[in-house]
Amino acid sequence: MDRDRPGSGERLVILALERFGVWLRSIVVCLCGALGVVSADAADVPLAVSLLGPAFLACGVRLYSLRRPRLFPLALLWTLDATVVVLTGLSQPVIGGEAADVMVEAMVGISVVAFQYEWATRPVAGAALAALGALVFVLGDVLSSPGHGIDVVPLVRMLIQVGLSRAAYLIIRALARAADRSAAVRAAARREMEVAAARRATEREYLATLHDTASATLLMVSQGDGRDWSWLPPRARQDLEAMSAVPGFETGSVDLAALLGCVPEGEGPARVRLTTRVDGPLAIPSGPGLAIFNGVREAVTNVARHSGVREAELRAWAEGDGAVVELSDAGRGFDPAAVSARRRGISGSIIARMHAVQGSASVTSQPDTGTRVQWRWHSPARVSQARDGAQAPGAPRPPRDQVQHTAGVRFIRGRLLYGTQLAMLLISLVWQFTISLRRLAVHQDVYRPAWAQTAAFVCLAAVAVIGGAYLLRGRRIPPRVRWWGVGSVLAVSAVCAFTLPAELSTGAPDWAFGVVGWHALFLLADLRVRVYAAFLAAHVGLNTTAVFLSGAPTVTQWAVIGISTIASCGFQLSVGVLMTYLLHGTAPAAGTEAAREEELRTRERIHEDMQRDHKERYRALTATTVPLLVGLGHGALSPHDEEVRLRCGVEAARMRRLFAEADAVSDPLLNELRACVEVAEHQGVTVSLAVRGRPGEVPVAVRRELIDPVAVILGRTRSTARVTVVWTPRAVRVSVVGEDRAGGRDRGTEEAAQTPGRATNANTNAQVDVVRTLRGGSVWVEAGWSRPAVTEERVAARIG
Questions:
Q1: What Cα–Cα distance (Å) separates residue 561 from each residue in 32, 98, 102, 211, 428?
Q2: Where is this region: Disordered (predicted)?
Q3: d(CA 771, CA 756)
Q4: Per-residue model confidence (pLDDT) at position 754
Q5: Degrees to nearest 5, angle at CA 600 with 596 and 601
Q6: pLDDT for 406
Q7: At CA 180, angle to CA 176 and CA 185, rounded to 5?
Q8: Alpha-carbon distance 441 to 463, whole Å?
Q9: Phi/psi of residue 619, each to 5°?
């Protein structure tokens, strides 16, 4: 993720906080302004309305700008915000009285707090509006009380609120940014896994394509099967097209019935007459459709080669939201368990091909009973719903996208929750030990009794310290500790409400009314907002009950209580609503957006890597396989020429070694050698293979260079050959003795002998030495590789 560009979580958090600031300020200004107008004298109402009315209108325009942000330049928005603050401050001397003082302090205080969220990405603008709010508050206080000095306490309280708001924003944004970065690291790891899986799937498909096309063609030419080669030129040209095409798993749809109607039946004696019974159309994604088509084509080829019959039946039908295809013949049959793992026709071209596209394939056969091959594909969603816990062999695995998305949302939500709880804890402690502590110390003579208020203060501090200890250690607050803390906070509210004179409720001596909500908020942050709303309702209810027990309050007292409740408890409730939105709205949205961005990046990487891999594969075949196919396809090379057949045998052996490269075996070098040996044995060559020493680890690039000279000699031998592998702790040597049918014209081995070390690899420091010796009609070739010193030290350290 780009360090200069905010991640999805951070962007959505900033957007949510901006909208929260606008809505909070607008609601508080309108409600508190309305209560202030109600408490004003009848003669002052018109002038108060003339000041607050435009402020209400500016709030409405500011709310509308959230829906149409492009219609409002930033300068106009800043002017609207400044207008609200100025008009609010000027209304204080017009309304007059205690209600006006409380109203303006609440409206301006909430506004300067909200500005820190509205203008979070432009802190200078937010700071300027906060300074303007403080100036207007002082001006209104001076105009409403000309004979008194400036009361700095509300001003200091307002500045503390601004600082806490900015600090809370920075904490939440930092945690959201950290969540984005951690999610980006995890997503990058998943992307690498998905890209690697896609590359492996593409590699398997490409190898299966080579097996079905070029490898089969070259092997047939090398064996000299038949005298009618009329089928060879078009077949060679088709093989070239298949090799140059990029195999992919497209997301489009194809008609499987139309594809099956194009399955080639072969030419001349190798033709297989297909009886086709397809219930069409069968629309499925093109990836599975092409996999089934290519598998059927390979199965038809196997019928022509091995079944002993020239007829087969091809059936296809829809099954739910998928399709089933079946090819059967009445030939000689075989035992599938007896087929060598290195035979790629069934395992690679049919079964593995279907597994790569989340489908399945099965081969049923017995000697003298014919063969039936069946392909099945269903949409992954249906397969996922149909699973009952156990996964059958070969069944497609459920998609992991939803699981990964849920995990990402849970991670972002956890980081946001931790950030908001830390921010609320900071506000609770700073507020309690600055504003509340001063009020408690100054008004000790007011409380009845004072020790109860002091004990409540200590209890509230203990709740914050205990809860904060869990948070700072990165642990969730246990339920028992949470509910003990909530009960203690509610007890503090009751004690403070009933040990304070009713006429002073929510006034300057009431240190607890505005702070207990913050303590409860960081305890209840991970629950639904209705739980926190119930706490605030109980808190306000206790204070209201204490007031009523002392007598019915006046209209002014009602207005003061209402404004104080809106400014403190209403603000805290809105913060609780914001936290719920962040956890249950912003976090899923951030997870979805991050998943969408990651999907795009993954697709781009897969496309780029597949294109690069394909070019590298085609480049590797250009020097050897492609010239052969071009010559055979255009008549420049004749299959009757013994030299051409020898070259085809060499290329067939090289391809079989390439196919074996993907096998998961304990000794890859020996496995790839055996693949080359099997090709030679198909040519009628008797090969003896001897291995001495304990096998070790050999890089892929080195194995290719060690085995290639062996493949060349085995491909040119038609009688007997001997292959030997010798392992030592520091080296491995592979040698082959065979006949020299090239008559000294073996260009591949001559180049290898003249250019020692042509397998040098930057990652392995590998150097393969090839020595070729002619002795009469035989040729001996030995390829050796010595383990680099660095690798030896690592192996020794690992053993030690």
A1: 11, 11, 9, 85, 22
A2: 384-404, 741-763
A3: 8
A4: 36
A5: 115
A6: 65
A7: 150
A8: 20
A9: -65, -35
